[in-house]
Amino acid sequence: MLHEFSPLAFDNSYRSLTPSPQDSIICCRDDTVLTAMGDMVSYPCLADLGQPAERCTYLFSIGEQPFFLLEEGAMDMAPAGYAFVPVQELRYTSPRHLCFAGVVAHHLYRWYASRRFCGRCGAAAQHDQVERLMVCTQCGQREYPQIMPAVIVGVVDGDRLLVTKYAGRENPRPALVAGYAEIGETLEQAVAREVMEETGLKVRHITYYKSQPWPFTGSMLAGFYAQVDGSNEIVRDEQELSEAVFVARADIDVPHMGLALTNEMICRFKDLGPDVLVHNDPVRQEPYE
């Protein structure tokens, strides 16, 4: 998946560092990220940008390579050889670890941009020097990066899988039931609720598969499979879904893209069928093939 690029390791522990002239700088503007023109993702170094190091915030490291974020508004025009590209386009480029760096940086960019002022008293907020958080300069309110838990559900009915398409999207991809967990409910309760709300189906034997950080929406995705409990008649929520149908395992025609949890779960059912409800190794870390 997008966050899997072994043997390189992603290290998001916060450090109060200043970039050197050759360190990679990620620049974001609205829903775009600055990258070199061409087929491969490449970010400028501090020397390319002509910006003071003090305008950069340390983000994380991948392998031995540190990444920094240029503060919002510091660069509106792309330097020669670079362009601001939609962050969603990064998921289809390579190398994968640099794609992941860009989308996680954009996640943090959105969070920093929305936390310049305290949500309690309205005073200015500043970066903490020990942890990745914003601290109010007046009341001391502390805010950590926002991560929203969401569930993705492969609903199984014998040798069939419930495949959906989201409403209101051009050329929607095959998807599964999905939604955000609400305050006060477990992830398993969120699974049952989302399936009922979107399709009118009851489920049982809810089985955890694996998780994936999804920086595009600031989410932590948790994948589950569940078995239909009782009637398999679908009552589709037309506001949420343009399509919701059970597809026989033999008729699933979805290529394994190796990027997103939804795609992996569909392909896994295509390979294993209803065994996905019991064939699960929670400690497995390698990508699903």
Describe what this molecule looks like in 3D.
The structure is a single chain. With 289 residues, the protein is of the alpha+beta class. The chain has three domains: 10-114, Nucleoside Triphosphate Pyrophosphohydrolase (Alpha-Beta Complex), CATH 3.90.79; 119-145, no CATH class; 148-277, Nucleoside Triphosphate Pyrophosphohydrolase. The protein has helices at 46-49, 96-114, 187-199, 261-272, and strands at 10-11, 24-26, 28-29, 32-36, 56-62, 65-70, 82-86, 125-127, 134-136, 142-143, 148-157, 160-166, 177-180, 203-214, 219-228, 241-248. Strands 11, 12, 13, 14, 15 and 16 form a six-stranded mixed β-sheet that branches. Strands 1-5-6-2 form a four-stranded mixed β-sheet. Strand 3 and strand 4 (32-36) form a beta hairpin. The longest helix has 19 residues, at 96-114.
- Inertia-based shape: globular
What's the CATH class label of the largest domain? Alpha Beta
Helix percent reads 10-25%
- What would you call the structural class? alpha+beta
Strand content: 25-35%
What would you give as the CATH superfamily of the largest domain?
A: Nucleoside Triphosphate Pyrophosphohydrolase
Please tell me the CATH architecture of the largest domain by its name: Alpha-Beta Complex
How many beta strands in the DSSP annotation? Answer: 16
Tell me the major beta sheet. 6 strands, mixed
- What is the domain tally? 3
Rg (C-alpha, Å): 21 Å
| Overall average residue pLDDT | 92
Q: What's the helix count?
A: 4
Short description:
By secondary structure, the chain is an alpha+beta fold.
